[in-house]
Amino acid sequence: MTTSFAPSGLHQATSPLGTTAGYMPGFGNDFETEALPDALPQGMNSPQKVNYGLYGEQLSGTAFTAPSHQNERTWCYRIRPSVKHTHRFQKIDLPLWASAPNVDPDIISLGQYRWDPIEHSKEPRTWLTGMRTMTTAGDVNTQVGMASHVYLVTQSMVDAYFYSADSEMLVVPQEGRMRFCTELGIIDVEPQEIAILPRGLVYRVEVLDGPCRGFVCENYGQKFELPGRGPIGANCMANPRDFKTPVAAFEDRDAPSTVTVKWCGQFHETKIGHSPLDVVAWHGNYAPCKYDLRTYCPVGAILFDHPDPSIFTVLTAPSGVEGTANIDFVLFRDRWMVAEDTFRPPWYHKNVMSELMGNIFGIYDAKPKGFIPGGMSLHNMMLPHGPDKIAFEGASNADLQAEKLENTMSFMFETRFPQHLTSFAAKDAPLQDDYIDCWADIEKKFDGTPGKK
Ligand SMILES: [Fe+2]
User: Fold this and answer.
1) Which Pfam family, giving just one, matches this sequence (predicted)?
2) How far is CA 248 from CA 6, 49, 187, 242, 370, in A?
3) Which positions make up the binding site for Fe cation?
Protein backbone atom coordinates (compact mmCIF):
# COMPACT_ATOMS: atom_id res chain seq x y z
CA MET A 1 0.00 0.00 0.00
CA THR A 2 1.39 3.42 -0.87
CA THR A 3 0.98 6.70 0.94
CA SER A 4 -0.62 9.87 -0.21
CA PHE A 5 -0.91 13.29 1.33
CA ALA A 6 -4.39 14.09 2.53
CA PRO A 7 -5.72 17.67 2.35
CA SER A 8 -5.65 18.03 6.13
CA GLY A 9 -1.93 17.30 6.22
CA LEU A 10 -2.20 13.71 7.37
CA HIS A 11 -0.32 10.96 5.59
CA GLN A 12 -3.07 8.64 4.44
CA ALA A 13 -3.16 5.10 3.10
CA THR A 14 -4.86 4.55 -0.20
CA SER A 15 -8.15 2.69 -0.27
CA PRO A 16 -7.43 -1.05 -0.54
CA LEU A 17 -10.25 -1.62 -3.00
CA GLY A 18 -10.04 1.69 -4.76
CA THR A 19 -13.81 1.99 -4.55
CA THR A 20 -14.27 4.92 -2.24
CA ALA A 21 -11.05 6.84 -1.72
CA GLY A 22 -9.96 6.71 1.87
CA TYR A 23 -12.57 4.29 3.19
CA MET A 24 -13.06 0.56 3.67
CA PRO A 25 -16.58 -0.91 3.42
CA GLY A 26 -18.32 -2.94 6.12
CA PHE A 27 -19.86 -2.63 9.58
CA GLY A 28 -17.78 -3.93 12.50
CA ASN A 29 -15.39 -5.77 10.23
CA ASP A 30 -11.95 -6.84 11.34
CA PHE A 31 -10.16 -4.19 9.28
CA GLU A 32 -6.47 -3.70 8.65
CA THR A 33 -4.78 -0.69 7.09
CA GLU A 34 -1.37 0.97 6.99
CA ALA A 35 -0.20 4.39 5.82
CA LEU A 36 3.42 3.20 5.33
CA PRO A 37 4.37 -0.10 3.71
CA ASP A 38 4.93 -2.95 6.16
CA ALA A 39 4.07 -0.81 9.17
CA LEU A 40 1.49 -3.37 10.25
CA PRO A 41 2.91 -6.48 11.94
CA GLN A 42 1.64 -9.67 10.34
CA GLY A 43 0.73 -12.85 12.18
CA MET A 44 1.09 -11.31 15.65
CA ASN A 45 0.19 -8.17 17.60
CA SER A 46 3.25 -7.45 19.76
CA PRO A 47 6.55 -8.08 17.99
CA GLN A 48 9.67 -7.34 19.99
CA LYS A 49 10.33 -4.39 17.69
CA VAL A 50 7.75 -2.82 15.37
CA ASN A 51 8.87 -1.53 11.97
CA TYR A 52 9.70 2.19 11.68
CA GLY A 53 10.23 2.34 15.48
CA LEU A 54 6.51 2.39 16.14
CA TYR A 55 4.90 1.52 19.46
CA GLY A 56 2.19 -1.16 19.60
CA GLU A 57 -0.90 -0.32 21.65
CA GLN A 58 -4.33 -1.85 22.10
CA LEU A 59 -7.51 0.24 22.28
CA SER A 60 -10.17 -1.85 24.04
CA GLY A 61 -13.77 -0.84 23.37
CA THR A 62 -15.25 -3.71 25.34
CA ALA A 63 -14.12 -5.68 28.37
CA PHE A 64 -11.39 -8.18 27.50
CA THR A 65 -13.81 -10.98 28.27
CA ALA A 66 -16.86 -9.67 26.37
CA PRO A 67 -18.56 -12.37 24.26
CA SER A 68 -16.92 -12.88 20.88
CA HIS A 69 -19.80 -11.34 18.89
CA GLN A 70 -19.53 -8.14 20.97
CA ASN A 71 -15.80 -8.05 21.63
CA GLU A 72 -14.20 -4.97 20.04
CA ARG A 73 -10.61 -3.85 20.12
CA THR A 74 -8.08 -2.34 17.77
CA TRP A 75 -4.30 -2.66 17.68
CA CYS A 76 -2.57 0.62 16.88
CA TYR A 77 1.02 1.09 15.74
CA ARG A 78 1.94 4.65 16.51
CA ILE A 79 4.76 7.14 16.75
CA ARG A 80 4.28 7.60 20.50
CA PRO A 81 2.17 5.55 22.91
CA SER A 82 -1.03 7.29 24.04
CA VAL A 83 0.39 7.80 27.50
CA LYS A 84 2.55 10.49 25.87
CA HIS A 85 -0.57 12.20 24.51
CA THR A 86 -1.80 13.34 27.90
CA HIS A 87 -0.07 15.04 30.78
CA ARG A 88 -1.46 16.38 34.05
CA PHE A 89 -5.10 17.37 33.75
CA GLN A 90 -6.84 20.59 34.60
CA LYS A 91 -10.61 20.87 34.79
CA ILE A 92 -12.25 23.27 32.41
CA ASP A 93 -15.85 24.42 32.08
CA LEU A 94 -18.00 23.76 29.05
CA PRO A 95 -21.26 24.57 30.82
CA LEU A 96 -23.51 24.12 27.80
CA TRP A 97 -22.33 20.53 27.24
CA ALA A 98 -24.23 18.65 29.96
CA SER A 99 -24.27 15.02 31.04
CA ALA A 100 -26.82 12.89 32.84
CA PRO A 101 -27.95 13.02 35.55
CA ASN A 102 -28.86 16.63 34.91
CA VAL A 103 -32.25 17.19 36.50
CA ASP A 104 -33.11 20.79 37.26
CA PRO A 105 -36.05 20.87 39.72
CA ASP A 106 -37.24 24.15 38.24
CA ILE A 107 -37.57 22.75 34.73
CA ILE A 108 -40.59 20.78 33.58
CA SER A 109 -39.55 18.03 31.19
CA LEU A 110 -43.09 16.64 31.17
CA GLY A 111 -44.62 18.08 28.03
CA GLN A 112 -44.58 17.94 24.27
CA TYR A 113 -41.77 20.21 23.16
CA ARG A 114 -40.58 21.53 19.83
CA TRP A 115 -37.80 23.90 18.89
CA ASP A 116 -36.96 26.03 15.89
CA PRO A 117 -33.41 25.66 14.55
CA ILE A 118 -30.84 27.17 16.89
CA GLU A 119 -29.09 30.04 15.17
CA HIS A 120 -25.33 30.45 15.01
CA SER A 121 -23.63 32.85 17.33
CA LYS A 122 -21.59 35.74 15.94
CA GLU A 123 -18.62 34.43 17.90
CA PRO A 124 -16.66 31.61 16.29
CA ARG A 125 -17.42 28.21 17.82
CA THR A 126 -15.52 24.95 17.67
CA TRP A 127 -16.74 21.38 18.16
CA LEU A 128 -16.18 21.90 21.91
CA THR A 129 -17.51 25.40 22.41
CA GLY A 130 -20.34 24.95 19.92
CA MET A 131 -21.98 21.92 21.55
CA ARG A 132 -25.41 22.62 23.09
CA THR A 133 -27.05 19.90 25.14
CA MET A 134 -30.81 19.64 24.76
CA THR A 135 -31.68 16.55 26.82
CA THR A 136 -30.02 13.98 29.04
CA ALA A 137 -31.17 10.54 30.14
CA GLY A 138 -29.77 7.88 32.44
CA ASP A 139 -26.43 8.28 34.17
CA VAL A 140 -23.06 8.85 32.57
CA ASN A 141 -21.29 7.42 35.62
CA THR A 142 -22.94 4.03 35.30
CA GLN A 143 -22.76 4.05 31.50
CA VAL A 144 -26.50 3.94 30.82
CA GLY A 145 -28.57 6.40 28.84
CA MET A 146 -27.68 9.20 26.50
CA ALA A 147 -27.60 12.92 25.81
CA SER A 148 -28.84 14.78 22.77
CA HIS A 149 -27.01 17.82 21.51
CA VAL A 150 -27.08 20.37 18.74
CA TYR A 151 -23.70 21.47 17.44
CA LEU A 152 -23.13 24.93 16.00
CA VAL A 153 -19.62 24.95 14.59
CA THR A 154 -17.97 27.69 12.56
CA GLN A 155 -14.30 27.24 13.41
CA SER A 156 -11.85 24.37 12.98
CA MET A 157 -9.93 23.00 15.95
CA VAL A 158 -6.26 23.98 15.51
CA ASP A 159 -3.62 22.07 17.48
CA ALA A 160 -6.55 20.98 19.64
CA TYR A 161 -7.89 17.47 20.09
CA PHE A 162 -10.71 15.80 21.95
CA TYR A 163 -11.91 12.46 23.15
CA SER A 164 -14.90 11.33 25.11
CA ALA A 165 -14.28 8.59 27.64
CA ASP A 166 -17.99 8.80 28.44
CA SER A 167 -19.57 7.96 25.17
CA GLU A 168 -19.86 6.87 21.62
CA MET A 169 -20.89 9.86 19.50
CA LEU A 170 -23.43 9.55 16.69
CA VAL A 171 -23.19 12.69 14.55
CA VAL A 172 -26.06 13.73 12.26
CA PRO A 173 -25.10 16.78 10.14
CA GLN A 174 -27.91 19.10 9.06
CA GLU A 175 -25.91 21.99 7.56
CA GLY A 176 -22.31 22.34 6.38
CA ARG A 177 -19.50 19.85 5.83
CA MET A 178 -17.01 18.73 8.46
CA ARG A 179 -13.88 16.63 8.65
CA PHE A 180 -13.12 14.38 11.59
CA CYS A 181 -9.36 13.79 11.68
CA THR A 182 -9.18 10.79 14.00
CA GLU A 183 -6.43 8.57 15.30
CA LEU A 184 -7.61 5.86 12.92
CA GLY A 185 -8.18 7.98 9.80
CA ILE A 186 -10.13 10.81 8.20
CA ILE A 187 -13.93 10.98 7.89
CA ASP A 188 -15.69 13.71 5.91
CA VAL A 189 -19.42 14.14 6.49
CA GLU A 190 -22.20 16.25 5.06
CA PRO A 191 -25.98 16.39 5.52
CA GLN A 192 -27.70 13.05 4.79
CA GLU A 193 -24.64 11.25 6.15
CA ILE A 194 -23.82 10.26 9.73
CA ALA A 195 -20.56 9.57 11.53
CA ILE A 196 -19.94 7.29 14.50
CA LEU A 197 -17.00 8.06 16.79
CA PRO A 198 -16.20 5.36 19.33
CA ARG A 199 -15.61 6.02 23.01
CA GLY A 200 -11.98 6.92 23.69
CA LEU A 201 -11.01 7.79 20.12
CA VAL A 202 -8.98 11.00 19.82
CA TYR A 203 -9.92 13.41 17.04
CA ARG A 204 -9.91 16.95 15.77
CA VAL A 205 -12.87 18.53 13.97
CA GLU A 206 -12.32 20.80 10.97
CA VAL A 207 -14.87 22.91 9.12
CA LEU A 208 -14.80 22.13 5.40
CA ASP A 209 -17.82 24.18 4.43
CA GLY A 210 -19.44 26.20 7.19
CA PRO A 211 -21.36 27.14 9.12
CA CYS A 212 -22.01 23.63 10.41
CA ARG A 213 -25.08 22.61 12.36
CA GLY A 214 -26.30 19.17 13.26
CA PHE A 215 -27.34 16.79 15.98
CA VAL A 216 -25.38 14.45 18.21
CA CYS A 217 -26.52 11.46 20.19
CA GLU A 218 -24.04 10.80 22.93
CA ASN A 219 -24.41 7.13 23.80
CA TYR A 220 -23.24 6.33 27.32
CA GLY A 221 -24.04 2.62 26.97
CA GLN A 222 -23.27 -0.35 24.82
CA LYS A 223 -22.22 0.46 21.26
CA PHE A 224 -24.58 0.95 18.35
CA GLU A 225 -25.07 -2.15 16.24
CA LEU A 226 -27.21 -3.11 13.30
CA PRO A 227 -30.69 -4.21 14.36
CA GLY A 228 -31.69 -7.80 13.73
CA ARG A 229 -33.89 -7.96 10.64
CA GLY A 230 -35.89 -11.00 11.77
CA PRO A 231 -38.24 -12.28 9.05
CA ILE A 232 -37.14 -9.46 6.71
CA GLY A 233 -34.09 -11.58 6.02
CA ALA A 234 -30.55 -10.80 4.99
CA ASN A 235 -31.09 -7.56 3.07
CA CYS A 236 -32.68 -4.09 3.20
CA MET A 237 -32.71 -1.48 5.96
CA ALA A 238 -29.06 -0.51 6.62
CA ASN A 239 -26.72 -2.84 4.76
CA PRO A 240 -23.27 -3.43 6.29
CA ARG A 241 -21.31 -2.63 3.13
CA ASP A 242 -22.62 0.94 3.12
CA PHE A 243 -20.76 1.77 6.33
CA LYS A 244 -17.31 3.18 5.57
CA THR A 245 -14.35 3.06 7.91
CA PRO A 246 -11.35 5.27 7.12
CA VAL A 247 -7.97 3.97 6.06
CA ALA A 248 -5.02 4.75 8.34
CA ALA A 249 -3.75 8.32 8.38
CA PHE A 250 -1.19 9.98 10.60
CA GLU A 251 0.66 13.20 11.15
CA ASP A 252 4.16 13.53 12.59
CA ARG A 253 3.95 17.09 13.81
CA ASP A 254 5.47 18.88 16.78
CA ALA A 255 3.42 21.85 17.98
CA PRO A 256 2.09 23.04 21.33
CA SER A 257 -1.27 21.27 21.51
CA THR A 258 -4.24 20.80 23.79
CA VAL A 259 -6.13 17.58 24.38
CA THR A 260 -9.55 17.88 26.02
CA VAL A 261 -11.05 14.80 27.64
CA LYS A 262 -14.69 14.32 28.61
CA TRP A 263 -14.71 11.96 31.58
CA CYS A 264 -17.69 11.28 33.88
CA GLY A 265 -19.42 14.40 32.61
CA GLN A 266 -16.49 16.67 33.36
CA PHE A 267 -14.03 18.25 30.96
CA HIS A 268 -10.29 18.14 31.48
CA GLU A 269 -7.52 19.78 29.52
CA THR A 270 -3.96 18.61 29.12
CA LYS A 271 -1.06 20.18 27.23
CA ILE A 272 1.31 18.25 24.98
CA GLY A 273 3.91 19.19 22.39
CA HIS A 274 2.79 17.22 19.36
CA SER A 275 -0.16 15.85 17.45
CA PRO A 276 -1.68 12.70 18.98
CA LEU A 277 -2.95 11.64 15.54
CA ASP A 278 0.10 9.43 15.04
CA VAL A 279 -1.27 5.96 14.28
CA VAL A 280 0.61 4.78 11.18
CA ALA A 281 -1.10 1.39 10.95
CA TRP A 282 -3.90 -0.42 12.73
CA HIS A 283 -6.01 -3.53 12.66
CA GLY A 284 -9.17 -4.43 14.53
CA ASN A 285 -12.91 -3.92 14.77
CA TYR A 286 -13.13 -0.89 17.08
CA ALA A 287 -13.08 2.03 14.67
CA PRO A 288 -15.02 5.09 13.52
CA CYS A 289 -17.23 4.97 10.46
CA LYS A 290 -19.62 6.98 8.34
CA TYR A 291 -22.85 6.00 6.66
CA ASP A 292 -24.84 7.60 3.86
CA LEU A 293 -28.49 7.73 4.94
CA ARG A 294 -29.47 7.76 1.26
CA THR A 295 -28.41 4.11 1.10
CA TYR A 296 -30.96 3.12 3.77
CA CYS A 297 -33.51 0.80 2.14
CA PRO A 298 -36.86 1.32 3.85
CA VAL A 299 -39.30 -1.54 4.26
CA GLY A 300 -42.96 -0.87 5.06
CA ALA A 301 -46.63 -1.69 4.66
CA ILE A 302 -47.57 -2.84 1.14
CA LEU A 303 -51.28 -3.50 1.70
CA PHE A 304 -52.72 -1.88 4.83
CA ASP A 305 -51.88 -0.37 8.24
CA HIS A 306 -48.90 1.56 9.53
CA PRO A 307 -46.13 -0.54 11.10
CA ASP A 308 -44.30 0.48 14.26
CA PRO A 309 -41.52 3.01 13.53
CA SER A 310 -38.96 0.41 14.61
CA ILE A 311 -39.23 -0.76 11.00
CA PHE A 312 -37.03 2.26 10.16
CA THR A 313 -34.27 1.56 12.71
CA VAL A 314 -30.83 2.26 11.26
CA LEU A 315 -28.83 1.41 14.38
CA THR A 316 -29.66 0.20 17.85
CA ALA A 317 -27.68 0.40 21.08
CA PRO A 318 -28.87 -2.39 23.36
CA SER A 319 -29.62 -2.06 27.04
CA GLY A 320 -29.62 -4.94 29.48
CA VAL A 321 -33.25 -5.70 28.62
CA GLU A 322 -33.71 -7.73 25.48
CA GLY A 323 -35.42 -5.77 22.69
CA THR A 324 -35.50 -2.58 24.78
CA ALA A 325 -32.89 -0.23 23.43
CA ASN A 326 -30.75 2.17 25.34
CA ILE A 327 -31.03 4.09 22.05
CA ASP A 328 -32.56 3.43 18.67
CA PHE A 329 -31.54 5.66 15.78
CA VAL A 330 -34.54 5.75 13.44
CA LEU A 331 -34.74 7.34 9.98
CA PHE A 332 -37.81 8.76 8.21
CA ARG A 333 -36.74 9.22 4.61
CA ASP A 334 -38.54 9.53 1.28
CA ARG A 335 -40.62 6.46 0.44
CA TRP A 336 -43.78 5.28 -1.22
CA MET A 337 -47.07 5.18 0.67
CA VAL A 338 -49.42 2.57 -0.78
CA ALA A 339 -51.50 1.19 2.11
CA GLU A 340 -55.21 0.86 1.29
CA ASP A 341 -58.05 2.02 3.56
CA THR A 342 -55.43 3.17 6.04
CA PHE A 343 -54.65 6.23 8.09
CA ARG A 344 -51.14 6.55 6.70
CA PRO A 345 -49.28 8.99 8.97
CA PRO A 346 -48.01 7.86 12.38
CA TRP A 347 -50.91 7.06 14.69
CA TYR A 348 -51.71 8.68 18.02
CA HIS A 349 -49.90 6.98 20.83
CA LYS A 350 -48.20 6.94 24.22
CA ASN A 351 -44.84 5.25 24.46
CA VAL A 352 -42.76 3.93 27.34
CA MET A 353 -39.73 4.99 25.30
CA SER A 354 -38.96 8.70 24.91
CA GLU A 355 -38.63 10.16 21.44
CA LEU A 356 -36.38 13.00 20.39
CA MET A 357 -36.70 13.94 16.73
CA GLY A 358 -34.74 16.20 14.42
CA ASN A 359 -35.50 17.42 10.92
CA ILE A 360 -32.57 17.16 8.47
CA PHE A 361 -34.55 18.57 5.55
CA GLY A 362 -38.05 18.80 4.11
CA ILE A 363 -41.48 18.13 5.55
CA TYR A 364 -42.38 15.39 8.05
CA ASP A 365 -45.74 13.80 7.25
CA ALA A 366 -47.24 13.90 10.75
CA LYS A 367 -46.35 17.57 11.20
CA PRO A 368 -46.64 19.44 7.88
CA LYS A 369 -46.07 22.77 9.61
CA GLY A 370 -43.77 23.90 12.40
CA PHE A 371 -41.28 21.00 12.44
CA ILE A 372 -38.72 22.62 10.21
CA PRO A 373 -35.23 21.66 9.03
CA GLY A 374 -32.74 22.10 11.86
CA GLY A 375 -35.56 21.95 14.41
CA MET A 376 -36.17 19.31 17.05
CA SER A 377 -39.07 17.90 19.04
CA LEU A 378 -39.37 15.84 22.20
CA HIS A 379 -42.21 13.50 23.08
CA ASN A 380 -41.20 12.18 26.45
CA MET A 381 -41.94 8.90 28.17
CA MET A 382 -45.68 8.13 28.35
CA LEU A 383 -46.70 11.51 26.95
CA PRO A 384 -49.41 11.28 24.28
CA HIS A 385 -48.68 12.68 20.85
CA GLY A 386 -49.49 12.15 17.20
CA PRO A 387 -50.60 13.93 14.05
CA ASP A 388 -51.71 17.52 14.31
CA LYS A 389 -55.13 18.70 13.14
CA ILE A 390 -53.92 19.43 9.60
CA ALA A 391 -52.26 16.04 9.21
CA PHE A 392 -55.26 14.19 10.64
CA GLU A 393 -57.83 15.89 8.42
CA GLY A 394 -55.64 15.52 5.35
CA ALA A 395 -54.87 11.85 5.86
CA SER A 396 -58.43 10.95 6.92
CA ASN A 397 -59.94 12.42 3.77
CA ALA A 398 -57.21 11.75 1.21
CA ASP A 399 -57.89 9.87 -2.00
CA LEU A 400 -55.57 6.94 -1.26
CA GLN A 401 -53.56 6.55 -4.40
CA ALA A 402 -49.98 5.36 -4.35
CA GLU A 403 -48.09 8.44 -3.23
CA LYS A 404 -44.43 9.14 -2.82
CA LEU A 405 -43.31 11.10 0.22
CA GLU A 406 -40.53 13.23 -1.21
CA ASN A 407 -38.35 16.04 0.07
CA THR A 408 -38.23 14.58 3.55
CA MET A 409 -35.56 13.32 5.96
CA SER A 410 -36.06 13.30 9.70
CA PHE A 411 -34.71 11.07 12.42
CA MET A 412 -35.41 9.98 15.97
CA PHE A 413 -33.19 9.22 18.95
CA GLU A 414 -35.45 6.94 20.95
CA THR A 415 -34.37 5.80 24.41
CA ARG A 416 -35.87 3.59 27.07
CA PHE A 417 -35.18 6.35 29.61
CA PRO A 418 -37.06 9.61 30.21
CA GLN A 419 -35.24 12.61 28.81
CA HIS A 420 -34.65 15.67 30.96
CA LEU A 421 -34.43 19.11 29.40
CA THR A 422 -31.36 21.18 30.08
CA SER A 423 -31.70 24.76 31.20
CA PHE A 424 -30.48 25.75 27.74
CA ALA A 425 -33.26 23.77 26.04
CA ALA A 426 -35.96 25.10 28.36
CA LYS A 427 -34.92 28.74 28.57
CA ASP A 428 -32.44 29.76 25.87
CA ALA A 429 -33.15 27.61 22.81
CA PRO A 430 -35.95 28.74 20.46
CA LEU A 431 -38.75 26.73 22.08
CA GLN A 432 -42.10 26.91 20.31
CA ASP A 433 -44.38 27.78 23.20
CA ASP A 434 -47.45 27.13 21.09
CA TYR A 435 -46.46 23.61 19.95
CA ILE A 436 -49.13 21.93 22.06
CA ASP A 437 -51.76 24.07 20.32
CA CYS A 438 -51.30 22.02 17.13
CA TRP A 439 -53.69 19.52 18.72
CA ALA A 440 -56.08 22.17 20.12
CA ASP A 441 -58.47 22.17 17.18
CA ILE A 442 -58.98 18.42 17.09
CA GLU A 443 -62.68 18.09 17.73
CA LYS A 444 -64.92 15.30 18.88
CA LYS A 445 -66.36 13.54 15.85
CA PHE A 446 -68.16 10.78 17.70
CA ASP A 447 -71.54 9.81 16.32
CA GLY A 448 -73.26 6.78 17.87
CA THR A 449 -75.31 6.04 14.77
CA PRO A 450 -74.67 2.41 13.67
CA GLY A 451 -72.52 2.17 10.54
CA LYS A 452 -71.34 5.79 10.82
CA LYS A 453 -67.66 6.48 9.96
FE1 LIG B 1 -44.08 8.75 18.75
Assistant:
1) HgmA_N
2) 11, 20, 11, 19, 43
3) 349, 355, 385
pLDDT one-digit tens code per residue, 351-361: 999 999 999 99
11 carries an active-site annotation: no
Q: Does 293 have pLDDT greater than 50? A: yes
The pTM score is 0.95
- Identify the active-site residue in 268, 306, 379, 420: 306
CA of 392 to the centre of ligand 1 (A): 15
Q: Number of H helices and number of E strands within the chain?
A: 2, 27
Give pLDDT, residue 445. Answer: 93
CA 155-156-157 angle, to 5 degrees, is: 120
Residue 364 pLDDT class (50, 70, 90 cuts): confident
Q: Please give the helix or strand (H or E) that residue 271 lies within, else none.
A: strand 266-274
Instruction: State pLDDT tens for residues 43-96.
Output: 999 999 999 999 999 999 999 999 999 999 999 999 999 999 999 999 999 999
DSSP helix/strand/coil, 52? helix
Residue 448 identity (one-letter amino acid): G
Q: Which has the closest alpha carbon to 196: 360, 98, 329? A: 329
Q: What are the pLDDT digits (tens) for 138-186?
A: 999 999 999 999 999 999 999 999 999 999 999 999 999 999 999 999 9
Q: Residues marked as binding for homogentisate? A: 364, 385
Q: How far is the CA of 154 from the centre of ligand 1 (A)?
A: 33
Binding site: residue ranges?
Answer: 349, 355, 364, 385
- Measured from the Cβ of residue 119, the count of other Cβ atoms closer than 10 Å reads 12
Q: How far is the CA of 277 from the centre of ligand 1 (A)?
A: 41
Start-to-end C-alpha separation, the chain: 69
User: In the chain, which segments carry CATH 2.60.120.10?
Assistant: 3-293, 298-432
Residue 60: beta bridge partners?
73
Residues surrounding ion ligand 1 at CB below 5 Å: 355
Into which CATH architecture does domain 3-293 fall?
Sandwich (2.60)
CA–centroid distance, residue 9 to ligand 1 (Å): 45
CA 191 / ligand 1 centre spacing (Å): 24
Q: Starting at the earlier edge strand, list the strands of the sheet with 325-337.
A: 112-115, 376-379, 354-362, 403-415, 325-337, 313-318
Report the residue count for the chain.
453
Average pLDDT of the segment spanning 223-235: 95
Phi, psi of 77 (to 5 degrees): -120, 110
Considering only CA atoms, give the Rg of the chain: 23
Q: Tell how far the Cα of 237 is from the centroid of ligand 1, in angstroms.
A: 20
The domain 298-432 having CATH identifier 2.60.120.10: the answer here is yes
Q: In 3D, which of 66, 9, 8, 78 has the Cα closest to residue 41?
A: 78
